[in-house]
Design goal:
The complex is a heterodimer of chains A (124) and B (433).
Chain A lengths: L1 E7 L2 H5 L7 H7 L1 E4 L1 H7 L6 E6 L2 E9 L7 E5 L2 H4 L15 E9 L7 H6 L4
Parallel strand pairs in A: 1-5, 2-4
Antiparallel strand pairs in A: 1-6, 3-4, 3-6
Chain B lengths: L1 E5 L11 E6 L2 E7 L3 H8 L8 E4 L2 E4 L2 H14 L3 E5 L5 H14 L2 E4 L6 H10 L6 H7 L2 E5 L3 H4 L3 H4 L17 E6 L4 H4 L3 E4 L5 H12 L9 E2 L2 E2 H13 L2 E6 L1 H4 L5 H14 L4 E6 L6 H12 L5 E2 L6 E2 L6 H6 L5 E5 L3 H4 L2 H7 L4 E5 L11 E4 L9 E4 L5 E4 L10 H20 L1
Parallel strand pairs in B: 6-7, 6-17, 8-9, 8-13, 9-10, 13-14, 17-18, 18-19
Antiparallel strand pairs in B: 1-2, 2-3, 4-5, 4-19, 7-15, 11-12, 15-16, 20-21
Helix pairs in contact in B: 2-17, 3-13, 3-17, 4-12, 9-10, 9-12
The chains are: A alpha/beta (124), B alpha/beta (433).
């Protein structure tokens, strides 16, 4: 399914800002919130995994229903999972494109990488 | 022991009326004043226990002196160093950081670069008709949150300063006020609004333009739908703006991080100006970290520019898009980086992190985070506002002094930076001999 991806703050992400290597942070941030109709379209239920692919990378996160998203908009809380797929192109303004990235989202059987394993992907 | 008037060192609200219970040099309870995010910070999480240096892929614990020497060596040898962060620490540390940047000819940048940097660019372009949060509390009868979700990101903002707060001329709190939320998602903030205007993602510029036109009386040029919003809803929003005695627009990342970036903010400010033809109206960025604004203040009075300042030429050069962290890293230009009170491992695009993993990285922070995974030197710091004091600037440019509530053996950021600076100067002096 094609979607527009946005990232941003959530209260649970904020509560674990200084606790990013914890399970609480992983549970709060390694997720993708979608409209229930979009979840039906890709055949995924809450807490099943989805792969989010953009021109800049791909990442597996847990699907969550809701977040107030209209159809076609997916939301990943700001953090290393969202940033695995956002663009570093700042359009000459210094600011990366953290919101409004064209993405493809599909159901996935791959696991959601814990933060340390996710960071290892950059070490190669 | 109960400590009153504790200042929260978390977000740009900088709430300064917290009551904290301290026993045996430990925060036991946050009794009053903090939101759940601020409370979580005060109650504490696992700390970086010791300074450490990476050897053969693993971090090995060492003394502060050894870590500081190693950090100074990396910075003194670098040809294109980046010093980044500075928003979750105090102005006194920022000042030393700028001195260090000048000494080594570094680029110094703060988290505004990936937050309200576009707002700063817009303000430099067209100014900012703004006010203090105190004025909002006492006067505002119309509050607009645009691309901002304070319920999640600034959880006390509505209660202390805006929609829910009770002020001198708004004694009944929200009964005396209207709340408009403009967003792509129906956020928790949108759910409590009197009017929720859902716009299409990336269409903020168009909607600001339409509101400007309507406020200035050019209804005929506005089509039946703009950016997913009907003309009827736009006219209703304009009616509320015109009828308000004092309106305020708070804007957030929904506007700065979307297509258009600083151009969106220029248009938002111009919309505010258009509202001035009818009533009193202000606009304010919802600054994120508690001292992201403070770094911009200090950097401006030290270098003439607020962020993304390149000091490699021997004078300050400012050109976000060229001298901003993301651009420098994506161009693979930096050959060393120091990160203080920030976490690029979690908050920079993957493309930037790929380069960071290849260059020497120094991290100064109280807490381990994704950046620690690739940092080569890790220096633990005292937590500003809990274990050390200093000055910060609230989102409305009001300076507030953070208090220290417990003692620590960890060094404050300012002292760590002074030691690194001293060591860098010693290395450079020796090289010059």
């Amino acid at each position: 399914m094609n979607a527009r991806l946005i990232s941003g703050r959530t209260i649970a992400q904020g509560q674990n800002l200084d606790n990013k290597l914890s399970e609480e942070y992983y549970n709060a941030v390694a997720i993708c919130e979608m409209n229930e109709k979009d979840m039906e379209k890709i055949g995924v239920s809450a807490d099943e995994n989805v792969e989010v692919r953009t021109s800049y990378g791909e990442v597996v996160v847990k699907a969550k229903e809701g977040g107030g998203n209209p159809e076609g908009i997916a939301f990943i809380p700001m953090g290393p999972w969202a940033n695995a797929v956002v663009s570093g192109d700042t359009h000459g303004a210094g600011m990366p494109q953290y919101k409004g990235i064209d993405a493809e989202i599909e159901k996935s059987e791959e696991k959601v990488l814990p933060v340390k394993e996710l960071m290892q992907r950059y070490m190669g | 022991m109960e400590i009153t008037d504790v200042v929260c060192a978390l977000c740009g609200c900088v709430c300064d009326d917290l009551v904290v219970e301290v026993e045996d040099n430990e925060v036991k309870k946050v009794k009053k004043g903090a939101c759940s995010v601020g409370k979580s910070k005060l109650m504490g999480h696992g700390r970086i226990k010791s300074p450490a240096i990476r050897e053969n892929g693993s971090l090995k614990e060492c003394s502060y002196d050894d870590a500081i020497k190693k950090a100074a060596g990396i910075l003194a040898a670098a040809r294109r160093p980046l010093l980044y962060g500075w928003s979750s620490t105090v102005c006194e540390a920022d000042k030393v950081g700028i001195e260090l940047a000048e000494e080594i000819g570094a680029v110094i940048d703060n988290t505004a670069s990936v937050c309200h940097g576009p707002s700063v660019l817009a303000i430099q372009d067209v100014g900012l008709p703004s006010c203090t949060l105190g004025e909002v509390k006492n006067r505002a009868d119309l509050v607009i949150y645009w691309g901002a979700n304070p319920t999640d990101a600034h959880a006390n903002h509505m209660k202390r300063y805006s929609y829910i707060s009770k002020g001198y001329w708004t004694a009944e709190g929200k009964k005396d006020k209207k709340l408009i939320v403009v967003d792509v998602r129906e956020t928790k903030t949108a759910k409590v609004a009197d009017v929720f205007i859902r716009i299409e993602q990336g269409k903020d510029f168009l909607v600001f333009s339409a509101l400007r036109a309507l406020l200035l009386g050019y209804e005929d040029v506005v089509p039946e739908e703009v950016g997913g919003v009907s003309k009827k809803d736009l006219l209703e929003a304009v009616r509320l703006m015109k009828e308000a005695k004092f309106g305020i627009t708070f804007f957030g990342m929904g506007v700065t991080q979307s297509t258009g970036r600083h151009n969106n903010i220029v248009n938002a400010i111009q919309m505010t100006r258009a509202a001035h033809t009818h009533t009193k109206f202000s606009i304010m960025p919802m600054r994120g970290h508690y001292n992201v604004n403070g770094f911009n203040q200090v950097c401006t009075w030290e270098t003439g520019y607020p962020f993304s300042v390149d000091l490699s030429r021997g004078y300050a050069w400012y050109n976000p898009g060229e001298t901003s962290s993301t651009d420098l890293l994506v161009r693979r230009e930096c050959d060393a980086a120091l990160f203080i009170a920030t976490d690029p491992g979690a908050h920079f695009p993957g493309e930037s992190i790929r380069h960071l993993a290849k260059i020497p990285v120094i991290q100064i922070d109280p807490f381990a985070n994704p950046t620690t995974e690739f940092a080569d030197v890790v220096i633990p710091a005292a937590i500003s506002g809990i274990e050390s004091e200093g000055n910060v600037y609230r989102m409305d440019n009001i300076p507030i002094r953070l208090r220290k509530v417990v003692d620590t053996e960890y060094l404050p950021d300012e002292e760590i930076l002074e030691k690194i600076l001293e060591e860098v100067r010693a290395i450079r002096e020796k090289e010059g001999e």
